[in-house]
Design a protein that fits this description.
There is one protein chain. The chain has four helices and eight strands, in the order H-E-E-H-E-E-E-E-H-E-E-H. The strands form three sheets. A four-stranded mixed beta sheet has the order 2-4-5-6, with helices on one face. Strands 1-3 form a two-stranded parallel sheet. Helix 2 runs parallel beside helix 3.
Amino acid sequence: IMGNSVMGVRYWFGAVALRLSLGLAGCADDEPAQTFPPADYSYLSQLHLNVATINIQDEAVPTPGSLSSKAPTPPDQALKQMANQRLVASGQQGQAAFIIKQAYISSEGENAISGALDVQLNIADAGNLHTGYIHARISRKLDTGTKSATSRASLYALTNQMMQDMNVELEFQVRKKLMSWMTDAVGNPLVDGGVKQQALDGPGSTASAAPAKPVTQDVPAAVTNTPSVAAPVQSSIPDAIF
């Protein structure tokens, strides 16, 4: 009987301990159970390019000890979403390649993490005669203080900060170095932020040299205005003589 009682007590304590451990595990799981909105950059201005297609290539090599896969939205996935939503093919020929060279998050100790994003955008016309490219790279470090640096919330926060920097850097580089490849929403090429009044025939073609035509048309306008200004001067001279 004593043996049965001892076994019963042990069984009771074991059941209680199991329930407590499950309850604590449930609390631990509930604490970081947060919802993280997916990456969305549709609210930013689109960058229309004078190409027919845009290919996205992920060439990033995983780094040892990378925390990227643990982030709610891994950095390389955020870059792909940015490219899909912001880069628009608005031309009739040619192609662009958005290449992810680097995208990682790594630990910097107990209370800090760091990361870097590196992308390249290559552009070429149909004959590969006219080409262009840009390179955009950013890096960030996040100090989390007393919070866990490797938590999903911290990884999500660093990813968002890096993507904000990359969106700014990418647009700056495109507008600085690839303006001749940019178009408006309907495919008209841009020049210094304005729209060229000509048909879209692609960069490198003879039509792309057409900006000289509006300048030539402006010259006669200036010449025809000159006699109208000089005419009163000529008519005033006879009045003075007579």
